[in-house]
């Protein structure tokens, strides 16, 4: 039996390194509200903040859920991954900033590459027009 002064931390001595208070949720129904998310995620502990993705951008159907306690976040991931909401199965994972930064960097580099390709195409067209005029 546990002592009255024992905390939850003593029962779960070590958590995996990826576990943190911030969860990233994907595959949400597009019409879900923050209040509905508070109802779903609040069952596993005190929620500090919920941020829904914008409806007009590619972030729709996603949300960040921040718990006040890391152990509540772990319970939510354990219980809500694969949970059916509005006919969609939730994908709940721990937020890992390094992965998001790499993705953002890749998207930025892709945009830069597209711009360079556009400039090269324009330059080739200008050179071709110049050659035609000289002939």
Write the layout of secondary structure elements.
Layout: H1 8-11, E1 22-26, H2 34-41, E2 47-52, E3 63-67, H3 70-80, E4 84-85, E5 88-89, E6 91-94, H4 97-134
Antiparallel strand pairs: 1-3, 1-6, 2-3, 4-5
Label this structure with key terms.
45% helix, 135 residues, alpha+beta, four-stranded antiparallel sheet, two-stranded antiparallel sheet, disordered N terminus
Give a structural overview:
Helix content is 45%, strand content 18%. The protein contains 4 helices and 6 strands, in the order αβαββαβββα. The strands form 2 sheets. Strands 2-3-1-6 form a 4-stranded antiparallel sheet, covered by helices on one side. A two-stranded antiparallel sheet has the order 4-5. The longest helix has 38 residues, at 97-134. The model is unreliable at 1-7 (pLDDT under 50).
Largest sheet: 4 strands, antiparallel
User: What share of residues are in beta strands?
Assistant: 15-25%
Secondary-structure element order, as H and E?
A: HEHEEHEEEH
Estimated helix fraction: 40-55%
Number of strands: 6
Q: Which value, in Å, is the CA radius of gyration?
A: 24 Å
Query: How far is it from the N-terminal to the C-terminal residue, by CA?
Result: 95 Å
Report the uncertain regions: 1-7
What's the gist of this structure?
The chain contains four helices and six strands; from the N terminus they run αβαββαβββα.
């Amino acid at each position: 039996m546990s002592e009255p002064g024992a905390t939850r931390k003593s029962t779960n001595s070590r958590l995996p390194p990826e576990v943190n208070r911030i969860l990233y949720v994907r595959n949400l129904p597009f019409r879900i509200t923050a209040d509905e998310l508070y109802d779903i995620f609040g069952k596993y502990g005190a929620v500090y903040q919920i941020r829904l993705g914008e409806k007009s951008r590619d972030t729709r159907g996603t949300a960040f859920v921040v718990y006040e306690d890391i152990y509540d976040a772990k319970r939510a991931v354990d219980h809500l991954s694969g949970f059916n909401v509005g006919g969609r199965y939730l994908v709940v994972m721990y937020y890992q900033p390094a992965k998001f930064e790499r993705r953002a960097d890749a998207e930025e580099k892709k945009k830069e590459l597209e711009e360079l390709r556009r400039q090269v195409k324009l330059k080739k067209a200008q050179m071709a027009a110049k050659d035609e005029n000289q002939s």
